[in-house]
Design goal:
The complex is a heterotrimer of chains A (573), B (117) and C (565). Chain A is mostly helical and 573 residues long. Chain A contains 22 helices and 3 strands. In chain B, 27% of the residues are buried. Classes of the chains: A mainly alpha (573), B mainly alpha (117), C mainly alpha (565). Chains A and B meet through helix 7, helix 8 and helix 11 of A and helix 2, helix 3 and helix 4 of B.
């Protein structure tokens, strides 16, 4: 029991921190209120450490709901074993990038109130204060994200996804005092509810098709009986619904509006947290379906038939997703990249550009999902590629948004603090605020995928898995899209560096919150360090992406042992 | 365990005996599609929210029907959680809608067009 | 270690300059380029030129970097790469010296990026790992982008963006091709999965076993990337714009080294990786390069902007280089590699000379300049000299390489005339034998065109009636100004410089002139040095054509065709 609970320690730590934060934030003394952010940070650190300590291996107890035994003898108490190694990696990544995001959140809510209290114009009123809720929402959302990674059951997955999303709707609404934040929140919430309804219906059909809600049982069912039409419809609906979370076509429209309406730090949060949740969920669902179906004959690869194209290192059996699923994901991936990049070209607001580019990055990662674990090395495993890219994207993107969050312009007529929004606002940033300017240069060049920065090392495995899986046309689409992206990322990188300051950008000043600048600096440092010595993270990602196609285990036949199971074939480092 | 199984497999009272899985699924699918269409075509925020609720409940019906069909409780368990989440979403939706209504005195989604790209 | 130092010294100095006071920037830049040049000279003495085909001077044990990706930090040069490294190192101090008076704003930024650029270019030639190569190859874009868009002339923003997007798009596609080769190599490592590697040597031997069809796709991908950089005919449009807008040193580096990255990549990857496809498509590529030669030449003829003229002449010259390379024989390939160096020397010098005039008169228009020999005799001497080198006057360097390239093309027929070309009716042995000579003959007319436009340019600008913008020369039209009325009342707007060249300027030109002369009169040492790598590549082709690879992967028809005695 305790061993199983250990699996959830990170979430428990976060939850405890959340409770403390909620109480602390309501304190009458400023010091205690300020401590809430620190407690939140501590909670994340603790969660990260605990996640690092828990390293579930295949066949070991890894999942906490032990009271449940299904009548068919399957127990959900095994964790999601098809992609079992993924969990600790994802949780540590969430904790790390969560810390960066938390730093950017400094002073998001309560700025006016606290200023009035400090000036003696008002007394603290717990009923009016949002601080406690805001930090609690951040932690709740991150808890939900971690739970998503732990999920081994459709019910759990659904709840975890909702826990990830629901707090973000409120975070958007209260992130600024302006009307457009409210509008963004409503837009986000309604489309989010639609997305949730769609993947929920998909889950229902998956259950209908297999008779199980447990992902391992579903995986086993698929491997024994194939994917029935009903289940396939369910999987496809789930994919479409999850497209909302990862901001992929056809559920992407909300992204630019919401990112523009929310405060930049919250937009940065939205670009990482729901996206990661969506990708983890997609990996779980698609992983349950598996990549071992008969080879496809479409596309250029057929030209190479019998030409030595047969990959040597395939998971037993076939080599791809079921054709219908593959095709759907293929179209989604290609459209997502292209739509995101092309529309980003037309924007003048930096936040909108980053929003569209976030759409495009989802498209890139989908290539890894389509390819799947072709082999077990980092360069041939699509799952590892996605996991690495998520971490890389989290760091680079947080850096870019943190820079925006660290800048502001004077108050407008209604007394709202303005944001640095257009490209013109960034002119000459490298001269006026060298640190922030260079962070933006580094992060946008990295997002562009320019070697030798982190983004390039994220894209390289996507290239290689795409090619290894024979998805060469998709890789070409990926390459061309990287080139399209160059146009707007160059603008983002070189407006601060090359353009001279003008009147518009002279009005831009630093926001009075050190945390945001620190987060920006840390992100850029992270990008540089990982660019030069990111090998260890790749090794971790390679392990985390380990795939056990024949993993579903019956409770009776696989007694829980303390011996760690051997790693699958040979995970190369 | 055996008792539970036999209970689940017991025949329904006469009037419902003719209803098969397909009937339930048809109702559920119709509800889902109606909800989807309503969401895409209506512009009143409350109606739009109700449409998503309709879709949630459509999934619920499907789950219960499947649970009965597969003779296990996963479906019904799922539905309990869905109801809880739906309640949470409803609370949040109403809060957001009230927030908006206070500012613009309108529930029409078209009156909110600050964000355009 | 020596090679690593060649890359790291400019890089370190670049960083140093970024933090140094403005006044010290130029001194530091001079130091940061001269030191590598001296070191490079030492490297040249330690290099064993008799076995030039061997990769030398690299660290014995390549250090793994980003191990899960299979990247190793391995360096090494063969004689081709070393010659190009030396060219890069030589142009370094020259560029710094040439910028002394031309660059007056944001001096630190300028020299910092210039040095970073040099480090990246050196890295390209020294890399023995595909990804290290690619990283350096791509990273050259950023400094060049900055150089053009900060210190270029009026249209610089557009030029910089176009330059970046063209080359970046191409090289991303090339990356896909290279990764495909790496993937193929892992699948064919004798059933034993040794892990992913990007070592060029390993990939080279693996890539050759690909089927003709696979090779064709890889060739297409690689050409997409490298042909843009060269630039080959249909994808050359970024070059004239970038050249015209770039500051002088930028143009020199662009013409001298950056274009050579493309040709070097063709030599390093395309020729050894995909021989079957190269044999198949060599005539097509040769055709494109001939179109480039003629088109570039004809466009030059109608140019009035001197810098643009030299830029287009680069398109034509690189056409010769590619023609020689794809002749696939000793003569052509030797000429092609020699051409890379010669073009860097002579065209680089031409851009320097144009920059010197531009600094004085703020125009490059042939309508506003004329008879400069009267005003600037020293400049005129150098101008005539380098134009002659560029035209291919016997006795100067251009002649040797151009002649070898054409000669190679004449003899090229033995390798051509199979596959697609066969199916188009080109018979090997019968008509195809004439194909090469015809190609060479048409390309030869390009030489004549080149002579005409360059000489016309010299005739107008150097001799003839003295014309100066706003000067006391006759018919001063005064339009087409880049710099708006810098000092319209001053009769001699020489920007504070004496009318003719200063000592510094002469010193920047002298080494180039000396090398042009030396390579023209006595090219033998370089030709000997190139013998190793060239005959290694060519013998691979001869071998392949004589004994088509057995096995199912070889395309049946091609095999049958080539097998015929």
């Amino acid at each position: 029991m305790s061993g199983r609970l250990a699996f959830l320690y990170p979430e428990i730590a976060l939850f405890v921190a959340t409770c403390v934060v909620m109480v602390l934030g309501l304190s009458r003394t400023l010091k205690a209120r300020k401590a809430s952010a620190w407690v939140a940070g501590l909670g994340l650190v603790a969660a990260g450490v605990l996640a690092m300590a828990s390293t579930p291996r295949m066949g070991q107890a890894s999942c906490p709901i032990s009271g449940f035994v299904y009548h068919d003898g399957l127990t959900p108490a095994m964790g999601q074993v098809v992609l079992a190694e993924m969990v600790p990696y994802v949780k540590v990544m969430i904790a790390g990038i969560g810390l960066l995001l938390l730093l950017t959140m400094a002073g998001t809510v309560d700025r006016e109130d606290e200023a009035r209290i400090a000036a003696g114009q008002a007394v603290f009123d717990p009923l009016r204060s949002n601080r406690a809720e805001f930090y609690a929402f951040v932690l709740f959302s991150l808890t939900g994200l971690m739970l998503t990674a732990s999920a081994d059951d459709l019910i759990w997955l659904f709840l975890a996804l909702e826990l990830t999303s629901l707090p973000t709707y409120i975070m958007v609404a209260i992130s600024t005092a302006r009307n457009r934040s409210r509008e963004a929140a409503v837009k986000y919430f309604f489309l989010g509810a639609l997305g949730a309804a769609i993947f929920l219906y998909g889950f229902a059909l998956m259950y209908g098709g297999t008779g199980h809600t447990n992902l391992n049982a579903i995986a086993q069912h698929f491997r024994e009986h194939g994917v029935s039409t009903l289940s396939m419809a369910g999987v496809l609906l789930a994919v479409f619904g999850l497209c909302f979370k990862i901001a992929a076509v056809p559920m992407h429209f909300y992204t630019p509006d919401v990112y523009e309406g929310a405060a930049p730090q919250v937009s940065g949060f939205l670009a990482f947290v729901p996206k990661t949740a969506g990708f983890v969920a997609l990996l779980l669902i698609v992983g349950a379906v598996g990549w071992e179906y008969a080879g496809h004959s479409a596309g250029v690869t057929s030209l190479f038939a019998g030409d030595g194209m047969e990959p040597v290192k395939h998971a037993a059996g076939g080599r791809q997703l079921p054709e219908l699923l593959r095709l759907t994901l293929w179209v989604i991936a290609a459209l997502t990249m292209t739509v995101g990049n092309v529309l980003a070209l037309l924007q003048s607001s930096v936040k909108r550009v980053l929003a569209y580019s976030s759409i495009a990055h989802s498209g890139y990662m989908l290539v890894g999902l389509i390819a799947g674990p072709v082999g077990s090395t980092f360069t041939t495993n699509g799952v590892s590629a996605i996991l690495f890219y998520l971490a890389a994207y989290g760091v680079m993107n947080t850096g870019a948004f943190a820079v925006l969050a660290a800048l502001e312009r004077g108050r407008d007529a209604e007394g709202h603090v303005g944001e640095a929004e257009s490209f013109d606002d960034l002119r000459g940033l490298c001269a006026s605020r060298p640190m922030l300017g260079w962070v933006l240069v580094v992060c946008s060049l990295s997002l562009l995928g320019l070697p030798p920065l982190l983004g390039f090392f994220g894209k390289l495995p996507l290239f290689s898995v795409g090619i290894a899986a024979g998805e060469i046309p998709l890789v070409i689409v990926l390459g061309l899209n990287s080139a399209i992206a160059a146009y707007y990322y160059l603008r983002l990188a070189f407006t601060p560096l090359l353009d001279a300051k003008d009147e518009g950008s002279a009005a831009i000043q630093a926001a009075p919150f050190k945390g945001r600048a620190v987060a920006a600096a840390l992100s850029a440092a992270g990008v540089l360090v990982l660019s030069l010595a990111g090998g260890w993270l790749m090794t971790k990602a390679a392990h985390a992406g380990a795939y056990y196609p024949s993993a579903p285990v019956k409770a009776e036949s696989a007694p829980i042992s303390d011996e760690p199971a051997p790693l699958p074939n040979d995970v190369h480092e | 365990m055996i008792g539970l199984t036999s209970l689940a497999q017991a025949a329904y009272p006469e009037p419902m005996a003719g209803a098969t899985l397909a009937h339930y699924l048809a109702v559920s699918a119709i509800m889902f599609v109606l909800g989807l269409i309503g969401f895409l075509t209506r512009r009143n925020l409350i109606i739009m929210f109700l449409c998503t609720e309709l879709m949630f409940q459509a999934a619920g019906i499907a789950l219960v029907a499947f649970g009965r069909y597969h003779l296990n409780f996963h479906g019904q368990t799922f539905v309990v959680f869905i109801l809880t989440v739906a309640a949470a979403e409803a609370a949040m939706a109403l809060a957001l809608i009230v927030l908006l209504f206070r500012r613009k005195e309108s529930l029409d989604a078209r009156s909110w067009e600050d964000l355009k790209g | 270690m020596l090679l690593a130092a060649l890359i790291l010294i400019p890089l370190l100095f670049g960083v140093l300059i970024a933090f140094a006071p403005d006044g010290r920037a130029r001194t530091l830049a001079g130091l940061g380029t001269t030191l590598p040049l001296l070191l490079g000279a030492y490297v040249a003495t330690t290099f064993d030129w008799t076995t030039g085909e061997r990769m030398q001077l690299g660290p014995m044990e390549p250090a793994a970097w980003m191990k899960p990706l299979g990247i190793t930090l391995s360096l090494g040069v063969d004689s081709v790469a070393l010659l190009l490294v030396l060219l890069t190192l030589l142009l370094g101090p020259i560029c710094v010296a040439a910028s002394a008076t031309a660059i007056t704003t944001r001096v630190r930024t300028y020299y910092a990026w210039l040095l970073v650029l040099q480090a990246a270019m050196t890295g390209v030639f020294c890399a023995r790992d595909l990804i290290v190569f690619y990283i350096c190859f791509e990273f050259t874009l950023i400094p060049m982008f900055v150089l053009i868009s900060l210190w270029g002339s009026t249209n610089r923003k557009k030029a910089a963006i176009k330059f970046f997007l063209f080359t970046f798009t191409g090289s991303v596609i090339a990356l896909a091709g290279l990764v495909y080769v790496a993937w193929y190599a892992t699948t064919t490592s004798g059933g034993k999965f040794a892990g992913w590697t990007f070592d060029i040597g390993v990939l080279e031997s693996a890539a050759r076993t690909m089927s003709a069809k696979q090779q064709a796709f890889v060739l297409l991908a690689l050409m997409a990337g490298f042909a843009v950089k060269v630039p080959l005919f249909p994808v050359h449009t970024w070059l004239p714009l970038a050249h015209t807008e770039a500051p002088t040193a930028g143009s020199v580096i662009l013409a001298g080294v950056l274009l050579k990255l493309g040709t070097y990549a063709l030599y390093r990857f395309v020729l050894p990786f995909v021989p079957l496809a190269v044999v198949e498509y060599a005539p097509l590529i040769a055709l494109l390069s001939i179109v480039g030669i003629l088109y570039g030449g004809l466009v030059c003829w109608v140019q009035t902007d001197v810098k643009k003229l030299v830029a287009y002449s680069s398109v034509a010259h690189l056409g010769f280089c590619i023609l020689g390379m794809f002749a696939l024989n000793n003569t052509g390939l030797t000429g092609s590699i020699l051409y890379m160096i010669n073009h860097g020397l002579s065209t680089g010098a031409l851009f320097l000379l144009i920059g010197m005039v531009y600094e004085r008169h703020h125009t490059r228009s042939m309508k506003e300049l004329g008879g400069l020999a009267k005003r600037m005799p020293v400049w005129a001497t150098f101008m005539v000299f380098f134009v002659m080198a560029s035209v291919g006057l016997p006795g100067l360097n251009g002649f040797v390489s151009e002649f070898l390239c054409l000669l190679g093309a004449f003899q090229a027929s033995s390798a051509w005339g199979s596959g697609v070309w066969h199916s188009l009716g080109v018979q090997k042995g019968a008509t195809p034998g004439d194909l090469g000579p015809w190609f060479a003959a048409v390309a030869g007319t390009g030489m004549i065109v080149a002579a005409m436009y360059l000489l016309i340019m010299v005739g107008r600008v150097v001799w003839g009636k003295l014309v100066l913008p706003h000067g006391h020369g006759a018919d001063n039209h005064g339009h087409g100004h880049d710099v708006p009325a810098a000092d319209s009342h001053a009769t001699e707007s020489t920007g504070g410089l004496p009318p003719d060249l200063t000592k510094r300027e002469i010193l920047t030109l002298l080494p180039l002139a000396a090398l042009c002369l030396a390579l023209g009169l006595y090219p033998k040492p370089v030709l000997m040095a190139l013998q190793g790598p060239v005959s290694r590549t060519v013998s691979m082709y001869d071998e392949m054509l004589r004994n088509p690879r057995p096995g199912p992967a070889v395309e049946k028809s091609a095999a049958a065709e080539r097998g015929a005695p």
